[in-house]
Amino acid sequence: MEIIITVIALVIAGLTAFFFGESRQKKQNSVADIPDAVLGQLPKIVSQAEQLSVPPDVAVAVMWQESAGKVNATGSAGEVGLFQIKEIAQDDVNQNFDTNLNRNLPIDNVEIGIRFLKLQFMRTGNWDDAIKAYNQGFQGMKVFQGKAQNYLNEVNDKRRKLLSVPL
């Protein structure tokens, strides 16, 4: 009788994991899923995020989504660096945090990106909306809801992959 109960418990646990993806998710995520360029940026991003009270996984995942860890990345709308900072975001951060950061300098780009995330969190009150606002702007996340949600989904997928890395 004990054997039957044990077998039933194992079957139920297996079906639960299968349908809810818990064990599959853990097996799928590994450091190999994260580009070397992103892994190389971890110490600097995590340190800055912790200093500014931003969850490191949020900061790293946004950087990964924005530039895939490429320091010299540029975007078609004038975005630059690891966090793909636009001039308007730089100005917003400098004004709200009384700083004089330059988005074209790699170390400043990181600080601007993380401060901009924090600023969006201060405006929205939660990290999901802060991530959407980082991409679409505070007003744009409401206007371009589908695009903002897609961006959030991409960032959250990267956050799940980061679970395999001690931050």
Can I get a quick summary?
This protein has 167 residues and is mainly alpha-helical. 69% of the residues lie in helices and 0% in strands.
Task: Characterise the protein shown here.
This protein is mainly alpha-helical. It has 2 domains: 33 residues, no CATH class; 130 residues, Lysozyme (Orthogonal Bundle). It is built from 9 helices and no strands. Helix 4 crosses helix 9 and helix 7 crosses helix 9. The longest helix is centred in the N-terminal third of the chain and has 19 residues. 32% of the residues are buried. The N terminus is likely disordered.
Low-confidence stretches: 3-27
Write the CATH architecture name of the largest domain: Orthogonal Bundle
Number of domains: 2
Report the C-alpha radius of gyration, rounded: 19 Å
Mean pLDDT score: 85
Number of strands: 0
- The separation of the N and C termini measures 46 Å
CATH class of the largest domain: Mainly Alpha
Order of helices and strands: HHHHHHHHH
As a percent range, the share of strand residues is: under 5%
